Amino acid sequence: MKRMGMIFRAKANKALDRAEDPRETLDYSYQKQLELLQKVRRGVADVATSRKRLELQLNQLQSQSSKLEDQGRKALALGREDLAREALSRRAALQQQVSDLEVQHQTLQGEEEKLTLAAQRLQAKVDAFRTKKETIKATYTAAQAQTRIAESFSGISEEMSDVGVAIQRAEDKTAQLQARAGAIDELLASGALDDHSGLAKDDIQAELDRLSGGTDVELELQRMKAELAGGPSSSKQAIEGGTGTPQDQPQQSSHPRFDKQ
To answer: Whole-angstrom Cα distance, residue 102 to residue 94?
Structure first.
C-alpha cells in the first residue's frame, strides 16, 4: 500500500508539474501580496480612526475640565466653597480620564506609524515583485516560443532525415535490382541458366546467325564492286550468281556454232 501511495503521489506530482504554468503562479502570488497590502492599509486606517476618536474624546474631556474649572472659580467668587470643591473634584476625575486617553492616544499613534511604515515597505516589495514577475513572465513566454520553434525545426529535420533515408533505400534497392538483372543476363548468355521464355538461342543457332550476318556483308560488298565495274545489271547478275564480279566469270562465245564444236 505504501508503494502504491508513493507511485500515485509521484504520478500526481508529475501531472501537476505539466499542468502548472509559472506565469499563473506568479500572478497568484502577486494577487496574494496585494490582498496582504490591502489588509495592512485597512489596519492603518482602523488605527488612524481609533486615534481620531480618542482625539475627539480628549477634546471633549478637556473642554469639560475647563468648564468645571471656571465653575469652581465662580463658586469661590460667590462664597460657595462647597460648590467650588465639587467642581474641582469632578475636574480631577476628568483629568484622570484625560491622562488615560492621552496614553492610549500615544500608543495608537505609535501603532499607526509602525503600520504606515510597514505598508510603505510592503508596497515597495509588491512593486518590485510586480516588476520581477512581469520580467519572468516575458522571459518564460519568449523561452516557450523558442522551444516551440526549436521543436518545430527539430520535427522538420526529422522528417527531412526520414525522406533522405527513404531516398537512400530506394537508390540502394534500385542498384541491387540492376546488379541482379545484369548477373542473370550474364548467366543466361553463358548457359549457366536455362531460359524457359523461348527467347534465348542455343550456341548452334548463334553461330549460324553470325555466319549469316557475315554472308550478308559479303553480298553487299560484291554488289558495290559490280556497280563500280559495270553497272547495275552486272552487279545484280554477280550477286545472284554469288560467284563474284562479272570480270571474274568465264567468257562464253557469242556464236553458237563454235560452242557446238
So the answer is: 12
**CB distance 105 to 54 below 8 Å:** yes
- Helix, strand or coil for residue 1? coil
Residues 146 and 207 in one domain: no
| Coil vs helix vs strand at 192 | coil
11 and 129 both lie in a single domain: yes
Structural domain total, the chain: 2
Over the stretch 16-25, which tens digit does the pLDDT of each residue have?
556 567 788 8
Judged by phi (left if over 0) then psi (alpha if -120 to 50, else beta), residue 191 lies in left
Cβ(108)–Cβ(51) below 8 Å: yes
Residue 185 in any domain: the answer is: no
In this structure, which amino acid lies at residue 208? L
**pLDDT tens by residue, 150-159:** 767 766 555 6
Q: Indicate the helix (H) or strand (E) that contains 91.
A: helix 81-190
Residue from 35, 29, 40 nearest 118 by CA: 40
